[in-house]
Amino acid sequence: MPCTVIVGAFWGDEGKGKIISYLALKDKLDFCVRTGSVNAAHTVWIAGRRYALHMVPAAFVYEKCRLLIGAGANVHVGKFLEEVELTKVNGRMAVDQQASIIEEKHSIQDKTSAHLKGIGTTGWGVGPAIEERVRRTAKTAKEIPELQPYLADVATEINEAMDTGKRVLLEGTQGFMLSLYHGTYPYVTGRDTGAAAICSEAGVGPTRVNDVLIVLKSFITRVGGGPLPRELTKEEAMRRGWFETAAGTGRDRRSAPFDFELAKKVAKINGATQAAVTKIDVLFPKCRGAQAFDDLPAEAKEFIKEIEEKTGVPVVLIGTGPEALDIVDRRK
Ligand code: IMP
Ligand code: MG
């Protein structure tokens, strides 16, 4: 801290929501800025309750954290209002006045496009909404009556906050391999999902970032079309306990083993200074609920060491269960 960027390393669903919710509570975050759009669902488990958040930042679990949506983000007004109500964050939630708006028509365009169907989009309409923004015909938050009480200049607010030493976290969405520029094009999302793009969407210059934390899941999953090296059959994924369904759309997630070479490349391109490894309890069930590195079995420690050796990045957080506090924190 003061400014940390959270980036998903693979094809999304690495467990960013869990890591962000932990950091919010543990580091007493002052600000959390969400980027991206409604297609990405961040799962947060707190006090036995599960939230799959499409708009409200995952740091909502820390009640003093101010929650923001950046100018580069794309806001679904209905989902936003629904989640503000659900998480009771009215009074500490704001939206940049220049964030663009995603509408029902974009979802219809997404779902009825044969090309986008082939890519296997989430159907929320994010691609068409961004197309409109690029054409400069999209609506922005300041034009929406329901958003008037939430409007802010997010970039100015967080930069001034950083000037006074406040702790700011920039919440990336999806994963680096879904980046429009660096991912498995054309099987990607409609935006760059890397660390630099997250800063750009929030309005933070590169010199102000202290840490880039990449979130790596212990095995890889992907939803939608496109390549997935060493993909397992659904039967094999189920046998290993890796089979998941998407938090946002309910679709089956495809799966594959952890990829050290890919992790190394992603760490480098994002300038990662820290890594989190999530769901280690799925690979090594004895890890479940552990909070100390020494309580992990030898195979799990080896796995973490191998990630550190291959990527050159320290693994500072290890997720050992779904709840925000099921974590090994190796930071000083
Ligand atoms: P779109 O972002 O809805 O246009 O979908 C493009 C691709 O990104 C598809 O393969 C989606 O499954 C994938 N995708 C979009 N958002 C997420 C996410 O939050 N998690 C995982 N995959 C996603
Ligand atoms: Mg997700």
Description:
The protein is built from 11 helices and 17 strands. It has helices spanning 16-26, 77-87, 104-112, 114-119, 126-135, 154-163, 195-202, 234-240, 260-270, 280-283, 298-311; strands spanning 3-8, 31-34, 42-46, 49-53, 66-69, 74-75, 93-96, 100-101, 151-152, 168-171, 211-217, 219-222, 244-245, 252-257, 274-278, 315-319, 327-329. The strands form 4 sheets. A 10-stranded mixed β-sheet has the order 9-7-5-2-10-1-11-15-16-17, with helices on both faces. Helix 3 (104-112) crosses helix 5 and helix 9 crosses helix 11 (298-311). The two termini are 13 Å apart. The structure holds inosinic acid and magnesium ion. Residues 12-13, 40-42, 247-248 line the site of magnesium ion.
Which key phrases capture this entry?
332 residues; alpha/beta; 3-stranded antiparallel beta sheet; globular; 17 strands; binds inosinic acid
List all distinct small molecules, including ions and cofactors, that are bound in this structure. Answer: inosinic acid, magnesium ion
Oligomer class: single chain
Number of helices: 11
Number of strands: 17
